[in-house]
Amino acid sequence: MAGAIVLTALTFSGCSQKKSASTADPSAPLPEVQVTHVRQGTVQQTVQLNATAVFRRQHVLKSPVTGYVVKSFAEPGQMVRKGDPVFVIETKESRALGNSLDSLNRKLGLSGRMTIRASVSGYVAAISHQTGDFVPEGEPLATINDRNSMVFILNIPVEWPSIIRRGESLPVQLPDGRKLSGVVTETLPSVDQAAQTRQVIIRVDKAGVVPEGLIAKVSLVQQEKANTQILPKAAVLANETENHFWVMKMHGKETAVKVPVTTGIQTADSVEILAPQFQPSDEILTTGNYGVPDTLNVKVIR
User: Fold this and answer.
1) pTM flag (> 0.85)
2) Which of 259, 291, 262 has its CA nearest to residue 275?
3) What are the pLDDT tens digits along the chain (302 aa)?
4) Cα(70)–Cα(115) distance, rounded to whole angstroms?
5) Beta strand 134-135 with 169-173: parallel, antiparallel or unpaired?
């Protein structure tokens, strides 16, 4: 009698569990996901390098006479135009003779002072003498960076012989957000022995005020492939060592399955898919795909 009661209880319990399971599964909400499609296009692998602003030509203003600096018009970093006054020099003889020479000079229409003017348009890089200094003939007074000689020097590794070509257009990104249009004019025929890099000269037009030594960013295309399969980076998953990749592809209307893929070029937001060959209609998960099993019932949000 006791055995019959136990058997009846177990049978009732089993029926209850089956009923519960059958009613719980349909009512459980499916994970919501979003999908995308493989597109055909061009993908580029780029590298960003630093480029330094330099002036390739500098002009040194020298004193044409022995005398004293009585006036200085420029300061380091100041922009000057060709012909602008930079210094006034009083000759040694004029300072020694004083008023008597001034009276004679006025009668003869002469002056004991000379104005030193900028020989080029550019930025004053250095001032060697200030007001009151004694300067011998030929003494450097100031150095002016020729504005028209400003270029960016880009150091590229020697193992990249064909990554950049003469005449190639390259965007130059300044720290203040400005983007300049640069053109490669030449590659210097020398190699930095320690760094094993070569110097590439990039000339820019309409650069505005760019101080010497400013570091800009230049993006170079290392590799490019056209007419290839591309997926958003969010659609491609990888293991911890990133040597195995896969995507979750919809199979039917509610099931997502794991599909191993072989990847190629990767950018900040896209991944090239070398294999397998997907169809344009294939739906690949972009959200809700992380850490899910091989086969998963999902609800696609359109």
Assistant:
1) no
2) 262
3) 444 444 344 444 444 444 433 333 566 789 999 999 999 999 998 889 999 999 999 999 999 999 999 999 988 888 899 999 999 999 888 777 765 555 555 554 456 789 999 999 998 999 999 999 999 999 999 999 998 899 999 999 888 767 888 899 999 999 999 999 999 999 888 898 888 999 999 999 877 778 889 999 998 888 889 999 999 999 999 999 999 999 999 999 999 999 999 999 999 899 999 999 999 999 999 999 998 889 989 999 98
4) 10
5) unpaired
